[in-house]
TrEMBL record:
Cited PROSITE patterns: ADH_SHORT
Reactions mediated catalytically: dTDP-alpha-D-glucose = dTDP-4-dehydro-6-deoxy-alpha-D-glucose + H2O
Family statement: Belongs to the NAD(P)-dependent epimerase/dehydratase family. dTDP-glucose dehydratase subfamily.
GO BP, one annotated term: nucleotide-sugar metabolic process
Keyword Lyase: yes
GO molecular function: dTDP-glucose 4,6-dehydratase activity
Protein name per UniProt: dTDP-glucose 4,6-dehydratase
Keywords (A to Z) from UniProt: Capsid protein, Lyase, NAD, Virion
Taxonomic placement: Bacteria, Pseudomonadati, Pseudomonadota, Alphaproteobacteria, Sphingomonadales
Length: 351
């Protein structure tokens, strides 16, 4: 039996990881540390019996130290972060506080308990980061590898880049056993509806505009959250301390292609699923029209990176990682989940 601390485990990726880890390791105890800000939702991990939610702030170093000691925890999986680029533009201070100071607090606690007071037993601090730390690619540039120069272009990506450097420094300076993974754009169940895919799905169901930044041709690599969880699992079990691994979905697509897929999928769902028009009467598809009519172009986001792409050669070779979800299959699963779990997302729209 292992004891695990998952920070931000009531959020989107962290919550999915808690579900995944519990399924893969049913004997493990999982402590979830989450401050339950707007994107943290206790219901995301409801029903995971071995998960204990501790409401608290990762900047509370004493609390983290106590959790590590009292629960004999030897692994931290660090998801907790402010992550929405738009919010980082309007209010960068929260990103500095959580992503940089919060990560430093966790590292200090881990160093104190595992190294300064520890017995020398194996431990692992796994840090989840983003491909956005690498900046923006041109249309013909090679994909991001782990050695790509950091060139963050938003307060969000700059704060994540800083946290990556702190994690690396604690390994090289103090000997903390760390790994870092930089992932591409995640999608799937339990994603807060401010990100593109859940926002556009729910707007389509409610007949609201689909706001498209700029020309809609910004390119992202799309990673189903379950594949990301598998990649993190591989980092924990097979990753080498001090190493960084890029985790991608193998689905590099312009935003417009993703939006077109959402519109087509929603239209098809209203044809195939009985009663959907009664549940969502404001959707164009409920009236036999196309969801495409909701597309609206808006002013581009400040500093909007043009293209991200992940080179996952290292993860494939060293971790035996490969994504298992195609974009089409992952999107079908995601749409189905949102249609079947209105009780989870409906309160978020009211909030």
């Amino acid at each position: 039996m292992a004891n695990l601390l998952v920070t931000g485990g009531a959020g989107f990726i962290g919550g999915n990881f808690v579900h995944y880890w519990a399924q893969q390791n049913p004997g493990d105890a999982v402590a979830v540390l989450d401050s339950l800000t707007y994107a943290g939702n206790e219901s995301t991990i409801a029903g995971v019996e071995q998960a204990e939610l501790v409401k608290g702030d990762i900047r509370d170093t004493a609390l983290v130290e106590a959790l590590l000691r009292d629960r004999d925890i030897a692994s931290i999986v660090h998801f907790a972060a402010e992550s929405h680029v738009d919010r980082s533009i309007s209010g960068p201070d929260a990103f500095i506080d959580t992503n940089i100071l919060g990560t430093n607090s966790l590292l200090k606690a881990a160093r104190t308990v595992w190294l300064d007071e520890g017995s020398g037993k194996p431990h692992r601090f796994h840090h989840i980061s983003t491909d956005e730390v690498y900046g923006s690619l041109g249309p013909d540039d090679p994909a991001f590898s782990e050695t790509h120069q950091y060139q963050p272009n938003s307060p969000y990506s700059a704060s994540k880049a800083a946290s990556d450097h702190l994690v690396r420094a604690y390994h090289h300076t103090f000997g903390l056993e760390v790994t870092t993974s930089n992932c591409s754009n995640n999608y799937g169940p339990y994603q807060y509806p401010e990100k593109l895919i859940p926002l556009f799905l729910l707007n389509a169901l409610h007949g609201r505009d689909l706001p498209i930044y700029g020309d809609g041709m910004n390119v992202r690599d799309w990673l189903h959250v379950e594949d990301h969880c598998r990649g993190i699992h591989a980092c924990l079990t097979r990753g080498q301390p001090g190493e960084t691994y890029n985790i991608g979905g193998g689905a590099e697509l312009p935003n417009m292609a993703v939006i077109d897929h959402i519109c087509t999928s929603v239209d098809r769902a209203f044809v195939e699923i009985a009663g959907l028009a009664d549940r969502y009467p404001d959707a164009p598809a409920a009236k036999g029209r196309s969801t495409n009519e909701l597309k609206t172009f808006v002013t581009d986001r400040a500093g909007h990176d043009r293209r991200y792409a992940i080179d996952e050669t290292k993860a494939r070779a060293e971790l035996d990682y490969a994504p298992s979800h195609s974009f089409e299959g992952g999107m079908a699963h995601t749409l189905r989940w949102y249609l079947e779990n209105e009780s989870w997302w409906q309160p978020l729209l009211r909030g």
